[in-house]
Amino acid sequence: MATVTQSVSPRQDSGPSAGRKFLHGLGWFLAHTGSIIALAIAWEWLARSGLVTPFQLPTLSSVLERIWTNAMTGDLFINTAVTLYRAIAGFLIAAVVGVLLGMAMSRIAFVRWFFDPIVSVGFPMPKVAFLPVIILWLGVYDASKITMIVVDAAFPVITATIVGLRGVDQYLLWSARNMGASNRELLWQIALPAALPQIMTGLQVALPIALILAVFTEMVMGGYGLGGAMMQASRFADSRGVFAGILEIAVVGYVLVKAMAILRRRLLIWHQEAMAPSTV
Amino acid sequence: MKTLIRYLPLLILAVAWEAASRLQLVSSLALPPLSDVIVAWWDLLKSGELLTNGAASLWRASAGLFLAIVIGATLGIFMAWWRPVNVVLSPLVEALYPMPKSALIPVTVIWLGFGDGSKILLILLGCMLPVTIGAYNGARGCDQALVWSARSMGASRMRMLWDVVVPSATPELLNGIRTALALSFILLVSSELIVAREGLGYLIGTLGANGTYDAMYAVVLTVAFIGFAADRIYQVIQDRMLRWQQ
């Protein structure tokens, strides 16, 4: 079955001259940044045109200036660090809890019986609705924020682990057992590595969720962090601060998601998917 | 009987909740007994508060989601169908996809105020990209042999788009819409919790602030149930629509 894959490989085997390589690279760069630059120019133009008030849309240059000021006073780094700390702490707890629970659910019948309906009902729920309840229990500091992140981010990890372990090739398990592997070796050396691509997919879903909830819980409860700072700006009708916050949050999200994709390629370098051309 | 055994754990949790609260194992302020929550839910329903706020929320979610599906699917299919659109848009999609959309809440409020408009815009912005990416991946994975044979049979470009590319993009597109459906509830509740004058999220916020926690729990469970039910209903529809694939 021939499927269309539009992968333009930057490295070509028949070596073109250095100049053509440079032109090719330049075109690649322009194609990939052109629309973002165009969007930036459109923003600046719209803000200066007088069609909108500076409150509705401050100029991009003034927003960048604000980000620079935030960076110079150190606020940007403190807020980024606080948000990242909460997001990553919640993500890591969710990853460990999710993988362990997924493993337990696929191996122990009783655990599966108990958690299966809870996971299948809990996964599609909008769990942010429980935020006021968690605030009621744990207050407005880190504990409740991280708990909210764990509650939300654990579900994709649990289901991905179950799906991954279920899909492990039976022949692999049989032949390993045949060669005298113990149950424990079977789990750690055969089943888990074979399930790793699926588990990584679950983690890749969970990471943005963790960041979203870190920002959102800060927006609701306040305190330091990128979301908190942006909400603070919004309360004082400081729209430059709001837009600066959005750009800062967007960049953090982009970097996190990219880093996760790179980590996946590193971890799965032995796997055949690493040979396939990447999409997005 | 089978379903009873399957969902027994949920019943056990409900009984444990009631018991823990009645036996004062936890403060009944932090966890009012489930029976009180059910009574409070009934009162909210009778007073009409649940219905008016629920209707406001559902209208926002469905309007935002509808716009997101129409715009997102069109965009995604055109990105796969026509190369220049892809070259222009895919870097934007890639840059904006990982951005936490709830961060846009203050901006949509600045633009459209506290009412319906800002929530619908937020849901549109947040839900569009998963639909776009689903439609794009689906249309891109369209079997090239099918396209060729349609062309050799003399199909016009528009006909090929409708009869070959769109149907083959449907499975991935429907998955994207499912993600968007879940996101729409999350964004709705998020934005209503932060700024709103009506809606279920607003109701949760005011009830919590008044300290009427049994009613707050009632609304929280209602929102959670609506989100869960919407996903299940969608799954049934999705299976129906993909029956031809088998």
Descriptors for this entry?
heterodimer, A: 280 residues, mainly alpha, MetI-like fold, 10 helices, 0% strand, B: 246 residues, membrane (chain A)
Order of helices and strands of chain A: HHHHHHHHHH
* Termini gap of chain B: 30 Å
Principal-axes geometry of chain B comes out as elongated
**How does the helix and strand content of chain B classify structurally?**
mainly alpha
CATH class membership of chain B: Mainly Alpha
Based on the structure, what is the oligomeric state of the protein chains?
A: heterodimer
Structural description of this entry:
Chain B: It is a multi-pass membrane protein. The complex is a heterodimer of chains A (280) and B (246). Chain A is mainly alpha-helical. Chain A has one domain: MetI-like fold (Orthogonal Bundle). Helices cover 76% and strands 0% of the residues of chain A. Chain A is built from 10 helices and no strands. Chain A is flat. In chain B, helix 3 packs antiparallel against helix 8 and helix 8 packs antiparallel against helix 10 (213-241). Chain B starts with a helix and ends in a 5-residue tail after the last helix. In chain B, 43% of the residues are buried. Chains A and B meet through helix 1, helix 4, helix 5, helix 8 and helix 9 of A and helix 1, helix 4, helix 5, helix 6 and helix 8 of B.
